[in-house]
Amino acid sequence: MKVTVVGAGWVGIISAATLAHFGHEVVLTDNREERIIALARGDLPFFEPGLDELFQAGIASGKVRVVKAEPGTMADADIVLCSVGTPPLPNGAADLSAVFEVARDFGRGIERSSVFVVRSTVPPGTGKFCQEMISEELRVRGSSVAFCIGSNPEFLAEGTAIRDSLEPERIIIGSESEGGESALKELYAPLLANGVPLLSTNIPTSELTKYAANAFLATKVSFINEIANYAELVGASAQDIAKGMGLDSRIGPKFLRPGIGYGGSCLPKDVRALVAAGKEAGYRFQIIPEVDRVNVGQRVRMYEAFAGALGSVRGKRIVLWGVSYKPGTDDTRESPALYFIDRLLREGATVVTCDPKVGFKIRVQFPQVEVAVDAESSLKGADALALLTEWPEFLSYTLSELRTRVREGIVLDARGVLQKR
What we know:
globular; five-stranded parallel sheet; 13 strands; alpha/beta; 16 helices; N-(1-d-carboxylethyl)-l-norvaline Dehydrogenase, domain 2; Rossmann fold; eight-stranded mixed sheet; single chain; about 45% helix
């Protein structure tokens, strides 16, 4: 199939590389000229394990072409995947302006029957709005070109996105027509042939499934952190409680690890966007807003316990192991580490960070931060240490050993991963 992927961000680039691997002819477009120039050279704007090889293979084979976004880039496509960002507005709602602009460009640019598919994370009803906008643009042109609307949310996790793309647990497609459903099934034919489960439903259901999945994962994280906070007061082991719960097949162990809470570009944004979408529809969620509140409170609680143990952080040299919100990525969006850095700096500490993928990039946001090239060198002259991201580089140390390596003997294992001996 001829596929145009609009939006050369994390989802768009991974989608383009994966679809090219499946044998489709992919045009990857973006309105940021500097991004297009870099991608045409093969330079990726972020780190994702295995992506560089897959993307370079697509470029080398000619299956992936990178061009600047214009309405004409969609003219000859069998299917257009809208993968632009939906960042949060001040009220938490998803900003859909980029999605709607792509829909309008689709209406302005298509020359033959095609399918417009929203792959971006969007609230229910977005597909309907896109359909109306496309129809309006076609009316303005006086065009009778036929088109279909579809929804195809991604379920990719940073750090494992290539495996999630090549060996997904499920594919969700939403469509209101046979043409749209058939096109999406053809798009993923290699995966369906390998037995990957497919759920074909209507567009609002497909759109909401993504939000529901992320909100539930976030709920598991906040739930186990609530239990962990109580367990600490009564002398119970939160880690063992999580293991005991995870052995129940109805619950499962994933996302049940006590710690500092979730971050990243998806869970925080999607939880808040779902709450905002509910308000707009006249429904007041009760559990989900508390999930967000507990998560934000967890990093505050851990910071204050850490700083309180020191008495004062002013004038202290504090080392933070991990800046990305989780290992396997250089993404720092909504990372608890950013909260720690900000408060430590404002309260007069010297902050030293060590992260194998973020590295010196953290100084773009926090120029005052010192950056260590490895864990061992970061400990020189340290008063205290907080492990905030469980990179493998940090796991060879024991908690007792690290307490002897910092002047104040204060070590926060915010992920519960250091051996206690």
